[in-house]
Amino acid sequence: MATEILKNFVSPVTSLLGSKNSIKGAGEPPKTDVEPSPGTTPQILKNKQYQTQTEFTMPTVIKKYKAAAVTAEPGWFNLEESTQKTIKWINEAGAAGCKLVAFPEVCMYSLIIHPYLGHAETFTNSPSQPFSITADTSLIGIPGYPYWMWKINYQESLPFLKKYRENSLSSDSDEMRRIRNAARENGIYVSLGYSEIDLATLHLSQVLIGPNGDILNHRRKIKPTHVEKLVFGDGAGDTFEPVTQTDIGRVGHYNCWENMNPFLKAYACCQGEQVHIAAWPIYPDNTTRSPMDPYTNVSDPNSDIVSPAYAIETCTYVLAPFQRLSHAGVVANTPEGKRDAVESEDVYNGHTRIYGPDGQLLAKPDKDFEGLVFVDIDLDQCHLPKALADFGGHYMRSDLIRLLVDSKRKEPITHVDEEGRLGTYSTKQRVGLSGPLGESPVKMGSEKVVKGFANGVGAERVAAGGSS
Description:
11 helices, 468 residues, 16 strands, alpha/beta
């Protein structure tokens, strides 16, 4: 009887490959005495030295914790300085006792200082210096959201595009390993948006870094928006998954207008998402909109309509970090010859929001604020909203309507083994994110990995240090 029931169960999401969202990371257990759930492997972790993702089965969920959304100036055109700034915000979130810190879309934080502007000031919310003012006099940054592509023509964009590509982040790089190490040193989950360069293509990418430094989720925006297509490529099937089970709940993230895509919202909702990062880029407010420009293309509806709508429809906490700009940043993204009449930086700032699982506004920064916006998360607050309207469960008719999801990667070249079977490919492995921090993951190109691909199995075992 039970077997027949399982056979006839209709899921709201049908995957061609089945679920890939098994437990992928371990975090620090709560300091209170908590009995592990049935089937849970107890963890004894000291000095924030976290286990790797292969050493446990199910994490004990920490229901109450502090999280932060970063609202800060994106970096421009300098990878090293940007990496330092990103690590700075991770360190500050860790020092503040956060379990999770969320960054905006394609944002590695730095302050841009133009040589002829002298210096600029940054407002930080540091635990040691609350709302302190710091100044920097160096020219730094990478790469932030290339909002110049919305303002200038093709010929004007070429110098910006070349510099932006040169300073985009490779996933298998020392800079990424240093960022992962900062997460490990602080024992914190990091949702990081970045411009990822993979071979010769840029992607609007996100990673969820675990408190042990492992990459728990690597995803790419499935479809760049409008003029973004001139800079970025599409995400593949195996970089599609948004939600990861962690010991701070089921955490998901999307980029920009993915957060208003009904199909993507439904997909995350059906995975029982509890905490969502709606990562946004630099956005001007409604005062800049021309009569023909749709209202959806400015910050106001995205911070105050789209983000809380996501919270209401999925019954999740929504951290919606936006980037911000200084006057120097506006100038840096404006071609020579047009810098005498640049817009005010005020139109770009103050848009970060945090919403509760019933859509109530929990946190909002001042217009001139740069730093961390904090929220106290209690996963039990998701229960009653989901009891009313769980669109991924009891409030959905899966026998009538459901999604079909294909999360296979499609390659220009697909290997076939001796028996004619098609190979399967892993983006996460190929770009060097599949192994634990501190190990050198086997990358595609070696004879061993190509053999694993040709067999269609075994590639993940090779990346983890096993044999195919």
